[in-house]
Amino acid sequence: MEEEAPGGGPEGTADALPPRKLAKRIAIVRAACAVFGREGYARASVDALAAAAGVSTRTLYNHFPGGKSELFRAVVTWSSGEVRDAHVATVRTLLDPGRPPHPDNLERDLAALVRALIDVMVEHPDHFALVRHVHAEADHVPPEVLAAWKSAGPGPVGDALADALAGLEEAGLIDVHGDAELAGAHFTALTSSAVAQLSHYGVLPLSEARTDRLVQGGVAAFLRAYRSRRGPAREASGQPAGDL
């Protein structure tokens, strides 16, 4: 898969760079991701960011004239894009609207989805270290950077989850009570977000037993509020959609 240029986004500026300059820009962003994840936005200095990338501060400013703020925006949008793609693919694979689960397997399949989303967190430690600092330093991070982060990552992932839950409603398995987006927010808060917060986004991993307890309990709580009371939708054959 071709790597997306950090900071390319809607402006498209990075996409037009010569290959050598683009490679340098990518290297700076990758190195900066680790520095910001370790030090946070406020504590990370331009000197430290340049040193981590093996470039001079002058070179860093040549690529990112806005300095630390512009570089941080490039880092969060690039890193969020990678994690977004993994999250969205996971949701669409495990909650395929075209193949809804059998009602008896709904709780199991939702728990499997949560486990897979947690695995994405474990597989991207630098990104979630960054997210931890974004939450902790929201009052120091430029508002446009926060907006770019939400647009690049949490927003599309929330949309994908809302679509998947709407599909489960269409199959008669849950009732989102007219607001699939809110249902998705509740699902996330009860499950993967609980694990993320208690583990400090993977810095202090939880035991398998505690993770299972949080996942199973969160899914069960979600279904107590959202499981459909009218039974699964049926096709013309009269069989539950999940059996087909």
How would you explain this protein's 3D organization?
- The protein has helices at residues 19-43, 46-53, 57-63, 68-94, 106-123, 125-136, 143-152, 154-170, 180-190, 192-198, 208-226.
- It is mainly alpha-helical and 244 residues long.
- Helix 5 packs across helix 11 (208-226).
- It is elongated and about 65 Å long.
- The two termini are 34 Å apart.
Helix-strand layout with pairing:
Elements: H1 19-43, H2 46-53, H3 57-63, H4 68-94, H5 106-123, H6 125-136, H7 143-152, H8 154-170, H9 180-190, H10 192-198, H11 208-226
Helix pairs in contact: 1-2, 1-4, 1-6, 4-5, 4-7, 4-8, 5-11, 8-9, 9-11
What is the residue-averaged pLDDT? 88
Number of helices: 11
Overall structural class, as computed from helix and strand content, comes to: mainly alpha
Task: Give the proportion of residues in helices.
Answer: 55-70%
Shape: elongated
* Rounded radius of gyration (Å): 21 Å
Strand tally: 0
* Binned strand content: under 5%
Order of helices and strands: HHHHHHHHHHH
Oligomeric nature of the chains: single chain
The gist of it:
The protein is built from eleven helices and no strands.
Provide the descriptors you would attach to this structure in a database record.
single chain, 244 residues, mainly alpha, 0% strand, elongated, disordered C terminus
